C-alpha cells in the first residue's frame, strides 16, 4: 500500500468474543497482540490506520474495547500518525436510548471511547447496520455524542437490511446544524435516476427522498390540501430542494381534488391558469376515472391513461402537452 501511494488503510480488528474465539480461534490477549502488531507495521510504513472495531455492540466494552482503544491512542501519540477508530454495529444491535446498557448503548460506546480511551471526536467513526430499523437513528445519536463521522452508502445499499443511507444523513445534518454546508441536495435525485436508468438498481417506491412515490399522495383529502397550499401535505419544498415536485396518484380515493391537482401539476398550470375542482375538464376526467373503478379496478391510473382522459375532456383544446412539466 505504501509503495502505490495509499496513505490511509482500513484494518479489521473484530472485538466481540464471537469473532475472537469462534472466528479467529484466539484468546482476547492473543487477538489484541495480533491487532497491535499489524497496526504497528502500518505505522512503521507511514500509513494512517483506520481500525474497524467489528461487532462492537456485542463486545466486552470495558474488558476489551477500552484497553485496546487506549493502546491504539498511545501508539498514535508515539508515532505522530492519526489512528482512526470505526465503531461497527455489525449486526444492528445498537440502541440510541440514554441509559441503555453497554455494549448495545450507542451513547455509551461513543462516550466511552472519548472519555475512557481518550479518542478525539475527529478519530471516531460510526458504522451502522439497519437490521432493527435503527440505522439512521443510531448514526445521528453517534454524532450527537461526539463521533466525528458516520459511514454511509447511497440509498442504504448494503449487506442484509443495508447500511445508513447517505441521503438520509445529509438531511439529518441539515436538521441538526441548520445548514447543508454547501451540499447541493438536488444531486440526490440525479443519483437516484442514474442508479435506476444506468445501473438498473430498483429503488423501492416508498423510499424517503428518492422513491418514486415518496412525495406522492393518493388520498383525496391530501390532494385538496395541496390545492390550497402545498405546505399542508408536502414534507418540505421538494421541488426546490430535490427537484421533485409533489405529485398525486389517481385512484378511487383521490377525489376531484386529486384530479384537479394532477392536471395542474402535469400541465404546468399555476396562478390564474390553474383549474379548480368545478372546471368542466376536471369534472369530465373525474367521471372517466370513476367509470374505471366502477368496473372493480384495483390499481392506480397511469400517467398515460390520465393524459388520454384529459385529451378527451379538453374538447376546446385549452391545455397543451408542451407545457407539461
Low-confidence stretches: none
> What fraction of residues sit in β-strands?
5-15%
Q: How large, in whole angstroms, is the Cα Rg? A: 27 Å
- Cα end-to-end separation: 51 Å
Content-based structural category: alpha/beta
Q: What is the ordering of alpha helices and beta strands?
A: EHHEHEHEHEHHEHHEHHH
What is the strand arrangement across the widest sheet?
1-2-3-4-5
Mean pLDDT: 93
**What is the helical fraction, as a range of percent?**
40-55%
Helix count from the secondary structure assignment: 12
Largest sheet: 5 strands, parallel
Q: Per the principal axes of the C-alpha atoms, what is the gross shape? A: elongated
Number of DSSP E strands: 7
Amino acid at each position: 500500500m505504501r509503495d502505490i501511494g495509499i496513505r490511509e488503510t482500513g484494518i479489521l480488528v473484530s472485538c466481540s468474543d464471537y469473532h475472537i474465539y469462534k472466528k479467529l480461534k484466539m484468546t482476547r490477549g492473543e487477538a489484541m497482540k495480533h491487532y497491535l502488531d499489524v497496526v504497528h507495521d502500518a505505522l512503521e510504513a507511514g500509513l494512517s490506520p483506520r481500525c474497524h472495531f467489528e461487532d462492537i455492540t456485542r463486545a466486552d466494552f470495558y474488558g476489551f474495547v477500552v484497553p485496546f482503544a487506549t493502546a491504539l491512542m498511545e501508539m498514535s501519540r508515539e508515532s505522530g500518525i492519526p489512528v482512526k477508530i470505526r465503531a461497527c454495529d455489525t449486526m444492528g444491535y445498537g440502541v440510541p436510548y440514554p441509559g441503555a446498557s453497554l455494549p448495545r448503548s450507542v451513547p455509551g460506546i461513543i462516550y466511552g471511547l472519548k472519555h475512557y480511551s481518550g479518542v478525539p471526536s475527529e478519530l471516531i467513526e460510526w458504522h451502522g447496520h439497519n437490521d432493527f430499523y435503527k440505522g439512521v437513528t443510531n448514526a445521528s445519536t453517534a454524532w450527537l455524542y461526539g463521533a466525528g463521522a458516520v459511514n454511509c452508502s447511497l440509498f442504504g445499499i448494503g449487506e442484509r437490511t443495508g447500511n445508513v443511507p447517505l441521503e438520509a444523513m445529509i438531511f439529518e445534518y441539515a436538521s441538526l446544524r441548520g445548514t447543508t454546508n454547501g451540499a447541493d441536495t438536488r444531486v440526490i435525485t440525479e443519483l437516484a435516476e442514474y442508479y435506476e436508468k444506468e445501473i438498473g438498481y430498483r429503488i423501492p417506491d416508498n423510499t424517503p427522498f428518492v422513491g418514486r412515490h415518496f412525495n406522492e399522495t393518493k388520498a383525496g383529502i391530501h390532494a385538496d390540501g395541496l390545492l390550497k397550499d402545498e405546505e399542508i401535505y408536502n414534507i418540505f419544498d421538494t421541488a426546490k430542494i430535490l427537484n421533485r415536485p409533489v405529485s398525486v396518484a389517481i385512484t378511487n380515493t383521490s377525489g376531484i381534488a386529486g384530479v384537479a391537482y394532477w392536471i395542474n401539476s402535469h400541465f404546468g398550470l399555476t396562478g390564474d391558469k390553474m383549474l379548480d375542482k368545478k372546471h368542466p375538464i376536471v369534472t369530465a376526467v373525474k367521471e372517466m376515472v370513476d367509470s374505471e373503478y366502477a368496473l372493480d379496478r384495483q390499481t392506480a391510473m397511469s400517467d398515460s391513461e390520465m393524459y388520454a382522459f384529459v385529451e378527451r375532456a379538453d374538447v376546446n383544446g385549452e391545455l397543451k402537452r408542451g407545457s407539461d412539466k
